[in-house]
Specification:
- By secondary structure, the chain is of the alpha+beta class.
- It has two domains: 141 residues, Beta-Lactamase; 179 residues, PPM-type phosphatase domain (Phosphatase 2c, domain 1, 4-Layer Sandwich), CATH 3.60.40.
- 36% of the residues lie in helices and 26% in strands.
- Strand 10 and strand 11 form a beta hairpin.
- Helix 2 packs antiparallel against helix 5 and helix 7 runs parallel beside helix 8.
- The protein is globular.
C-alpha cells in the first residue's frame, strides 16, 4: 500500500488520455483492495458533480451534489460515508494547484485508518494531475462537465480561461463566469510567476461570437506582452493598440489589470474602464478608488499610468464587472448598490472558491432566478500574507 500512489501514477502514464478513469479504477482496486471507484467531474457552473465511469447514472449530478461528495468538493478534505454492510465510501478532492476538478470516490471493505486515507488522497492527487493534462487531448471530461450545449462564444471563453481557481502559499484566487453556457465577451485571466501574480478582468463590448473574438485578441495581446517581460503598462498599451488598429476605435474593452507582489502585499493597477474593485476587510466591504482611464482600443496610442495600493494579511479583494455591479432586474436598484455588499460580507468565512459561487447565486436570486441579461464575472483574491513557513511550502 505505501507505493499505491506510485503504482496508480504509472498506470495513468501508460493509459490513453480518454481512459484515465478506467486505468485508475483498475489500479485502485488492486492497490487499495477497493470494490469500486467513481470519478465525479464538476460542471461549468460548479453546481453539480457528474460521473465519468457511469455517465448514465440517473440524477448523478444532483445526488452527488446533495451528499458527501459535495461536502468533500466544498471543503477540499476527504469525507467518509459508511454503509450498513460495513463498507465505507471515501470521497477525495480532485484538485491541482487549487483548481477544483471534481471528486474521486473509493469504496473500501471497511472504514480506513488515517494512513489509508492519506494514501488515497495521494492517489487522487495523481489522478487530478493526469486529468488536467489529458484535457487537451480528449473531449471526454469536457463532455462530462457540460449539462447543456455551449454557445460558440462560450466554448471560446472557457478554452481561453487559465482555470477557475489557484492556490499559493500567500494567496487564494478564484473566478466564475455566468451565464456559463452562453457567456460572450466578458472574461478573466491570471498568471503566477515567482512573487508576481497578474490578474485581469475584461468587460468587452457587444455580445455573442463577435464579443468573444474581441476578448480573445485582447487577452492574447496582454499575454504576449506579459510573457515577453512587459510591465503592466506595456500589457495595457499593446492590447489597446492592437484593438484600435483592428477596429479603428469602433470597439473597445474595459479592463482592470492588477499585478500583486505576493510577498509584500503591494498591488499595482491599471484601471482601463468599468470593472469594479472592492475590498473585504473584517466585516467591512469598501470600494478601492482608482483613477479610471480610457478603455483599451478606444483611441490610437493611448498611454496608461500605474497606481498602487497595499493589502493587509486576511484582506479579500473582489473584482466584478458591470454585469454584476450594475444589474437592474425588474426595475430594482442596481445589485451593486447594497445587495452585492451583503452577499460579499456573507462570504467572509468561506474560501475564495466558495465565495465566487455565493456572490453569483445571490446575483441569480436578485434576478428572481431569471436569465442574466448581461455577462457576469466575479473574481476573488485572498491575500494571506507572507511567512517563512508559507514560502517554504509554496
Amino acid at each position: 500500500m505505501p507505493d499505491a500512489a506510485g503504482q496508480v501514477a504509472r498506470a495513468l502514464r501508460a493509459a490513453p488520455p480518454d481512459q484515465l478513469a478506467e486505468a485508475a479504477d483498475r489500479a485502485i482496486r488492486r492497490t487499495l483492495d477497493a470494490s469500486r471507484t467513481e470519478v465525479f467531474i464538476a460542471d461549468y457552473r460548479a453546481s453539480g458533480l457528474w460521473p465519468v465511469l457511469d455517465p448514465d447514472l440517473p440524477d448523478g449530478g444532483f445526488l452527488a451534489w446533495q451528499g458527501v461528495a459535495q461536502r468533500c468538493f466544498s471543503s477540499q478534505q476527504p469525507a467518509l460515508d459508511g454503509g450498513e454492510d460495513g463498507r465505507c465510501r471515501v470521497y477525495l478532492p480532485l484538485s491541482v494547484w487549487g483548481e477544483r476538478l471534481g471528486v474521486l470516490m473509493v469504496e473500501l471493505p471497511a472504514a480506513p485508518d488515517a494512513a489509508t486515507v492519506e494514501t488515497a488522497r495521494d492517489v487522487a492527487g495523481e489522478l487530478a494531475v493526469a486529468l488536467r493534462a489529458a484535457d487537451r487531448e480528449t473531449d471526454r471530461y469536457r463532455r462530462a462537465r457540460r449539462r447543456e450545449r455551449l454557445s460558440m462564444a462560450a466554448e471560446m471563453q472557457w478554452d481561453l480561461l487559465p482555470g477557475r481557481s489557484v492556490t499559493h502559499g500567500d494567496f487564494r484566487l478564484a473566478g466564475q463566469l455566468e451565464p456559463a453556457y452562453t457567456v460572450g465577451g466578458d472574461h478573466f485571466d491570471w498568471s503566477v510567476d515567482g512573487d508576481r501574480l497578474s490578474v485581469t478582468v475584461l468587460n468587452g463590448t457587444g455580445s455573442g461570437l463577435a464579443a468573444s473574438l474581441l476578448t480573445a485578441v485582447t487577452v492574447n495581446a496582454m499575454r504576449n506582452a506579459r510573457r515577453s517581460g512587459g510591465s503592466l503598462v506595456e500589457q495595457a498599451e499593446l492590447a489597446s493598440d492592437t484593438i484600435f488598429y483592428q477596429n479603428r476605435g469602433s470597439r473597445h474593452v474595459a479592463t482592470l489589470l492588477l499585478e500583486v507582489d505576493t510577498r509584500r502585499g503591494v498591488v499595482k493597477a491599471v484601471d482601463a474602464g468599468s470593472p469594479h474593485l472592492l475590498r473585504l476587510r473584517g466585516g467591512t466591504i469598501a470600494p478601492i478608488a482608482l483613477e479610471q482611464q480610457l478603455p483599451l482600443g478606444m483611441f490610437a496610442e493611448t498611454r496608461y499610468d500605474v497606481q498602487e495600493f497595499t493589502v493587509e494579511p486576511g484582506d479579500r479583494l473582489f473584482v466584478v464587472n458591470d454585469g454584476v455591479y450594475a444589474a437592474e432586474p425588474a426595475g430594482q436598484e442596481p445589485y451593486g448598490e447594497r445587495a452585492m455588499a451583503r452577499s460579499m460580507r456573507s462570504t467572509r468565512l468561506q474560501p475564495a472558491t466558495e465565495a465566487v459561487g455565493t456572490v453569483m447565486r445571490e446575483l441569480h436570486a436578485y434576478h428572481a432566478d431569471a436569465d442574466l441579461r448581461d455577462d457576469a464575472v466575479v473574481v476573488c483574491l485572498d491575500w494571506r500574507g507572507s511567512s517563512p513557513a508559507d514560502n517554504a511550502g509554496g
